[in-house]
Design a protein that fits this description.
Distance between the termini: 75 Å
CATH superfamily of the largest domain: Cupredoxins -  blue copper proteins
Largest sheet: 6 strands, mixed
Number of strands: 11
Bound molecules: copper (II) ion
Structural class: alpha+beta
Strand content: 35-45%
Length: 149
């Protein structure tokens, strides 16, 4: 066997074992993909529920061309479960500075959980073209720090 052949075999083996290792490593990690929740009519009523000081549930409803509720007030450090649905066409649901990119689909509920560790205003925008009023479709999450008052 030629020396360069040996080199190629060793490099290929290293790359392959790195590849297999990264698959096995990633398998054990949980990801924060949105999950689907069985459809229920109660999710089509927009509301914000405070379960305790650190946990909220938001039933977010998208429709032409607004989100309801349009202003969501929460306390700093809270975890918020967003349940998202649409009353008509497909809308997008993107929260700025958060890794949230969901679709609001009629007859479906998408769920994701977000933790808000920094105070401020997080814009929610529709990032799926949904008609003439698409660009006006916005809402916001307002995160208050109770210690700053
Ligand atoms: Cu839109």
């Amino acid at each position: 066997m030629d020396r360069s052949e040996k080199k190629v075999i060793i490099i290929t083996g290293l790359v392959l074992s790195l590849f297999i290792f990264s698959i096995l490593y990633a398998r054990g990690k949980t990801n924060d993909l949105p999950e689907c929740v069985p459809f229920d009519k109660t999710y089509t009523e927009p509301k914000v529920t405070k379960l305790d000081n650190k946990t909220y549930q938001v039933y977010a409803v998208a429709k032409m061309w607004q989100f309801e509720p349009s202003q969501i007030y929460i306390l700093l450090g809270s975890e918020v479960d967003f349940f998202l649905t649409s009353k008509d066409v497909v809308h997008g649901f993107n929260i700025s500075d958060k890794n949230v990119n969901m679709m609001a689909v009629y007859g479906n509920i998408n769920k994701t959980t977000v933790k808000f560790d920094k105070p401020g205003v997080y814009k929610i925008t529709c990032h799926e073209y949904c008609g003439v009023g698409h660009q006006t479709m916005q809402a916001e999450v307002i995160v208050n720090d109770p210690a700053s008052k």
